């Protein structure tokens, strides 16, 4: 499988957009794309992280020794968490599996769910877009800064800038549209990242899982969580029984209540969402941005 | 590398020790991953830390820093005792059947001939027993008690799994698990590759350590075969080129030997340096030494080098004790014996052990010129901790230089590929490439000699400087000289015509060649380093028309050893080379033997060695080492435990240990923990801390501390700690980890502290210079410092 997209995937068709009717997709269908992350051959070198920043012109601040001492975040991670100017992060975690020490190293970013919690939760028409090829992206001109996308995300992903606009991995949509692979895939030195049609990536992932099983990793698995309809990033996990150690949720799903307002309870939903918005607004006024933004527990370091 | 990067993917077992390729060679490491995909290979990682390579390895064994010879010696013992070695290969391609002198011996940690006063060996007994025909005696049956195989058996019989476990701190079971996997590769159809790097060289016995690995690979029949070999993963993109072309000053370019004081005439030098055959059918390729040496002299001094004046042999300096290496250089500088220094492509301060001494040595210079793309610590040494700038009188000139992307030229990778690269962009500001700088440098020096004369101006005035613009030589002009050319019209060749290969070189002065091993890279048809052809006729990733591989575009050294006596590949599924009786020649990779000599002629597979065979025993008749003909486990100079094999000789008895007032060594009572230094994948040496994109990936200097030790010391993750050695102390953030376990060594708990080296007091991110605390102890052969395995203490500074 070539890492480059093949003919037919170049170009974008919209599958759905937030808070809107399903667009007409009869004109052209684009196949779903995916990136396969083979953890069994990932060495955690962060080349993907560096490439991501270069491509997206991101310049997160450099951590200082004082900050590290103060926050007790010594470790192999470049930053303790994703930021609005850091779309992906290599996470390191020391643990165990089958009585053996394991250094769990995971590439962490937006997963591009087939059932995107962010899109389902977003109340603003057109602010979240899912393309036919599976890429989930934001349109900041339509975003109202309510942060519902984060509430809806089972992977705890988008981060917000000073204007409350969400940022995350956009699958290098510009590169992909031009027929190139995403920057992280392009740069991966061990080729543990592969880019292609979802169907092919699943097949390749299954093969690697099979060979891992033959090599004694009996819990090896392909992580493509059905609770969100599968994802655009799929992972070969050598220790599939320890999903959480990889900093991935075990059974991610979009909370039913989040999507409810768009269905039969649309009216109620609208009231609820505007109420929530008002609440969020009041909260912002009264207590400033909290919890969702920076109140999460710091991740343990590896 | 005997083999090459791509060839790693032909392997059945990737044995990583003394290196951390996933961390330090991430792009090359993909071939280890490919080996797993392609051949179901296993990856074994043996290291003092569970590192990034260990994270994807099938088997990881943690050992105490500096105990690698014990571990490998144990593997040799396992392979010999259990008869797992590739018998036919060993009989045919190694010196195992050679018989060693009766008076050779080894007792209590010392080989015969040791003189405790001079701390040197008299190597007379380290030799073969010679027959009346003048060749070493052999026992093809390998039954003779003094044949090399049996000498090996005896020497390593002490390295039992129990002893290995006791020295290394691993368990016997862990060792045996590795041994079983390794021993499987003694089969002709199973090959193991060994990947190593500075983790093996940075010891006071580093050369011997690598020899241990060579012996193991020879016994398993893994040298010269696809997917085998002993593969040094070089650090800098062009460090192989630096070594080849004598950037280190220990040799002349491409391993030609510098003259010794006792070799006052060319004839004396050639007689001493041209080895004689030690086996009747060996090719003994170094017999051509005079051709290479005289061509080198012609390259240097052209028409001034004539048969009458010994080809200007007198122009080469012949210092007592050999050419300088940096250990001596620092010591001399510290003692005020050196006036000035030009340093290029090196951060001298950050790279040298006991850097506290280096700083004080630099202070004694009257002047120093630093060539570097960045403002490095060396150029600002007066800012170092403990220095009073008002006391520093050194005049420092900094010349900003181009980085590798900002100049044209070739780079030689670990696999000996000479690959051309084009200039991507101009260097910024006033930065210039080294061609420009050294061109002007030389022309000015020459001008001064012309004007003022001097004690001996001839070598400068007569130096061949044939460049179109003498102030700015081009890379291809220099490659022409390295490749070699005819100096006069001879046998149909025109003066100035480039030679096709080193086989064209002569000893009559009609050829000039700057580096014989590189000869062939730039034949008359063009610069082969520029080739980008991706055809792979053997399907083994040899890519014969991609770049150019020294020597003679040979992708795997000693490839003749991949075949049996009749010239048939040991493993028909990986036929690197084979004798084609119909064509009457060897086919496959460029053969490492005479191309048309049939196997019946019995030309040894190791053509560079006078035995024609892989040397298991370093007999002095050709060349031996300063510290023994066989590798032996010695403790690092600072060790927490005694040497259980020979407590009275715990360390390498001939290691180079400096004893200036500042060269202090610590003892375990004051410095109970073992420390080791290493690199991280996020950084390249001390360079990338000057660049945002890499700096922020690993911004803060840390030291890695085992959880158990941290608990004992009340250190929490993220605390600021101080690591103290007998020499100095450094501060860094504590990274408390499960990846370094406490080890039980000789009944004692030994903790290892890990210290990455990438920081300094200049750059976007700053941190301590790790080498302030490393010891000034050196391998006697390679003159490499002992950065891996020294004693330290640790204390919390603040939370």
The SS-based structural class of chain A is: alpha+beta
How do the strands of the widest beta sheet of chain B line up side by side? Answer: 22-24-23-29-21-27
| Beta-strand fraction estimate of chain B | 15-25%
Overall CATH class of chain A: Alpha Beta
Termini separation of chain B comes to 46 Å
Radius of gyration of chain B: 26 Å
What's the order of the H and E elements of chain A?
A: EEHHEEHEEHEEHHEHEEHH
What is the straight-line distance between the termini of chain A?
33 Å
Give the uncertain stretches of chain A in residue-range form.
1-9, 290-302
What's the CATH class of the domain at 6-94 and 153-235 in chain B, please?
Alpha Beta
Give the beta-strand count of chain A.
11
Topology of this structure?
The complex is a heterodimer of chains A (302) and B (799).
Chain A (H helix, E strand, L loop, with lengths): L13 E4 L15 E6 L8 H9 L9 H7 L17 E9 L2 E9 L8 H5 L6 E4 L4 E3 L9 H5 L6 E2 L5 E2 L5 H5 L5 H5 L5 E5 H17 L6 E3 L9 E5 L18 H5 L5 H22 L15
Chain B lengths: L12 E5 L3 H4 L1 H14 L2 E6 L4 H5 L2 E4 L5 H14 L5 H7 L12 E2 L2 E2 L2 E2 L4 E2 L26 H9 L4 H8 L3 H13 L7 E5 L1 H4 L4 H14 L10 E3 L6 H6 L21 H8 L15 H13 L24 H9 L5 E5 L3 H4 L3 H8 L4 E6 L22 E6 L8 E4 L4 E5 L12 H19 L5 H4 L13 H9 L1 E2 L24 E2 L35 E2 L27 E4 L4 E4 L67 E2 L15 E6 L13 H4 L6 E5 H7 L6 E5 L4 E9 L5 E3 L2 E3 L1 E5 L20 E2 L9 E11 L1
Parallel strand pairs in B: 1-2, 1-8, 2-3, 8-9, 10-11, 11-12, 21-27, 22-24
Antiparallel strand pairs in B: 4-5, 6-7, 13-14, 14-17, 15-16, 18-19, 20-28, 21-29, 23-24, 23-29, 25-26
Helix pairs in contact in B: 4-7, 4-8, 4-10, 7-8, 14-16
């Amino acid at each position: 499988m070539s890492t480059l997209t093949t003919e037919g995937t170049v170009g974008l068709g919209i599958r759905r957009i937030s808070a809107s009717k399903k667009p007409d997709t009869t004109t052209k269908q684009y196949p779903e794309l995916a990136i396969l992350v083979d953890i069994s051959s990932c060495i955690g070198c962060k080349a993907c992280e560096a490439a991501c920043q270069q491509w997206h012109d991101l310049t997160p601040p450099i951590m200082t020794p004082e900050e590290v001492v103060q926050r007790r975040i010594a470790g192999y991670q470049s930053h303790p968490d994703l930021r609005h100017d850091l779309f992906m992060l290599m996470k390191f975690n020391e643990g165990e599996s089958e009585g053996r020490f394991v250094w769990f190293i995971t590439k962490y970013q937006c997963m591009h769910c087939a059932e995107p919690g962010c899109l389902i939760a977003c109340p603003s028409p057109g602010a979240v877009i899912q393309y036919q090829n599976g890429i989930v992206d934001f349109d900041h001109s339509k975003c109202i800064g309510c942060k519902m996308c984060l509430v809806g995300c089972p992977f705890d992903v988008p981060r917000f800038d000073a204007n409350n606009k969400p940022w995350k991995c956009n699958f290098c949509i510009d590169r992909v549209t031009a027929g190139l692979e995403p920057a992280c895939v392009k740069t991966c030195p061990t080729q543990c990242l592969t880019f292609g049609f979802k169907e092919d990536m699943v097949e390749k992932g299954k093969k690697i899982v099979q060979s891992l099983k033959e090599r004694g990793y009996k819990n090896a698995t392909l992580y493509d969580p059905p609770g969100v309809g599968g994802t655009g990033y799929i992972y070969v996990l050598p220790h599939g029984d320890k999903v959480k150690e990889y900093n991935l949720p075990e059974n991610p799903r979009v909370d039913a209540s989040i999507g409810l307002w768009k269905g039969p309870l649309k009216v109620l939903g609208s009231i609820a969402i505007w109420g929530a918005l008002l609440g969020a607004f009041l909260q912002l006024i009264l207590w400033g941005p909290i919890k969702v933004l920076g109140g999460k527990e710091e991740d343990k370091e590896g | 590398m005997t083999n090459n990067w791509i060839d790693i993917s032909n392997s059945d077992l990737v044995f990583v020790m003394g290196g951390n390729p996933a961390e330090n060679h991430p792009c090359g490491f993909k071939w280890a991953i490919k080996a797993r995909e392609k051949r179901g290979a296993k990856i074994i990682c043996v290291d003092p830390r569970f590192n990034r390579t260990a994270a994807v390895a099938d088997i990881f064994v943690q050992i105490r820093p500096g105990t690698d010879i014990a571990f490998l010696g144990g593997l040799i013992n396992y392979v010999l005792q259990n008869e797992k070695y590739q018998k036919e290969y060993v009989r045919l391609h190694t010196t195992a059947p050679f018989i060693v002198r009766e008076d050779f011996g080894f007792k209590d940690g010392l080989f015969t001939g040791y003189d405790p006063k001079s701390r040197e060996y008299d190597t007379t007994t380290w030799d073969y027993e010679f027959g009346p025909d003048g060749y070493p005696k052999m026992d093809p049956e390998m039954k003779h008690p003094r044949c090399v195989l049996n000498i090996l058996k005896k020497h390593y019989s002490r390295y039992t799994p129990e002893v290995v476990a006791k020295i290394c701190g691993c368990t016997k079971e862990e060792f045996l698990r590795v041994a079983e996997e390794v021993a499987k590769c003694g089969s002709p159809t199973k090959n193991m590759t060994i990947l190593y790097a500075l983790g093996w060289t940075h010891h006071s016995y580093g050369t011997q350590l690598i020899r241990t690995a060579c012996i193991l690979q020879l016994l398993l029949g893994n040298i010269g075969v696809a997917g085998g070999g002993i593969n040094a993963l070089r650090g800098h993109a062009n460090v192989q080129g630096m070594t080849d072309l004598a950037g280190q000053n220990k040799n002349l370019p491409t391993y030609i030997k510098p003259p010794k004081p006792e070799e006052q005439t060319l004839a004396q030098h050639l007689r001493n340096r041209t080895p004689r055959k030690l086996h009747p059918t060996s090719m003994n390729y170094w017999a051509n030494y005079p051709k290479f040496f005289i061509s080198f002299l012609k390259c240097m001094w052209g028409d001034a080098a004539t048969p009458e004046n010994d080809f200007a042999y007198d122009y080469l300096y012949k210092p007592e004790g050999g050419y300088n290496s940096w250990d001596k250089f620092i010591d001399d500088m510290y003692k005020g014996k050196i006036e000035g220094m030009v340093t290029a492509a090196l951060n001298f301060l950050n790279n040298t052990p006991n850097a506290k001494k280096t700083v004080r040595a630099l202070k004694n210079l009257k002047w120093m010129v630093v060539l570097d793309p960045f403002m490095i610590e060396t150029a600002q040494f007066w800012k170092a901790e403990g220095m009073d700038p008002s006391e520093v009188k050194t005049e420092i000139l900094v010349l900003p230089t181009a980085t590798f992307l900002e100049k044209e030229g070739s780079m030689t990778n670990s696999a000996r590929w000479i690959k051309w690269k084009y200039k991507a962009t101009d260097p910024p500001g006033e930065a210039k490439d080294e061609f420009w700088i050294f061109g002007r440098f030389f022309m000015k020096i020459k001008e001064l000699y012309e004007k003022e004369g001097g004690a001996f101006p001839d070598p400068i005035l007569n130096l061949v400087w044939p460049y179109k613009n003498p102030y700015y030589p081009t890379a291809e002009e220099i490659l022409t000289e390295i490749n070699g050319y005819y100096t006069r019209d001879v046998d149909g060749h025109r003066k100035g015509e480039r030679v096709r290969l080193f086989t064209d070189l002569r000893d009559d002065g009609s050829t000039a060649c700057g580096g014989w091993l590189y000869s062939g890279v730039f034949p008359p048809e063009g610069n082969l380093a520029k080739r980008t052809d991706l055809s792979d006729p053997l399907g083994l990733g040899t890519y014969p028309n991609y770049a150019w591989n020294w020597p003679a575009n040979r992708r795997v050294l000693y490839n003749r050893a991949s075949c049996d006596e009749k010239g048939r590949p040991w493993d028909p599924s990986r036929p690197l080379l084979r004798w084609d009786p119909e064509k009457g020649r060897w086919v496959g990779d460029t053969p490492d033997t005479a191309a048309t000599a049939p196997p019946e002629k019995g030309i040894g597979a190791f053509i560079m060695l006078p035995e024609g065979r892989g040397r298991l025993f370093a007999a002095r008749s050709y060349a031996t080492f300063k510290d023994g003909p066989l590798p032996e486990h010695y403790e690092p100079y600072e060790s927490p435990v005694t040497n259980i094999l020979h407590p009275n000789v715990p360390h390498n008895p001939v290691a180079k240990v400096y004893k200036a007032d500042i060269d202090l060594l610590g003892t375990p009572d004051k410095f109970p923990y073992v420390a080791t230094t290493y690199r991280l994948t996020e950084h390249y040496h001390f360079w990338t801390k000057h660049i945002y994109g890499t700096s922020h990936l690993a911004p803060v200097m840390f030291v890695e501390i085992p959880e158990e030790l941290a608990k004992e010391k009340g250190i929490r993750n993220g605390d600021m700690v101080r690591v103290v050695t007998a020499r100095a102390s450094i501060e860094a953030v504590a990274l408390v980890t499960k990846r370094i376990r406490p080890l039980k060594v000789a009944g004692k708990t030994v903790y290892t502290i890990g210290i990455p080296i990438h920081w300094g007091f200049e750059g976007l991110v700053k941190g301590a210079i790790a080498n302030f605390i490393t010891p000034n102890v050196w391998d006697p052969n390679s003159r490499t410092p002992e950065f891996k395995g020294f004693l330290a203490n640790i204390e919390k500074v603040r939370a």
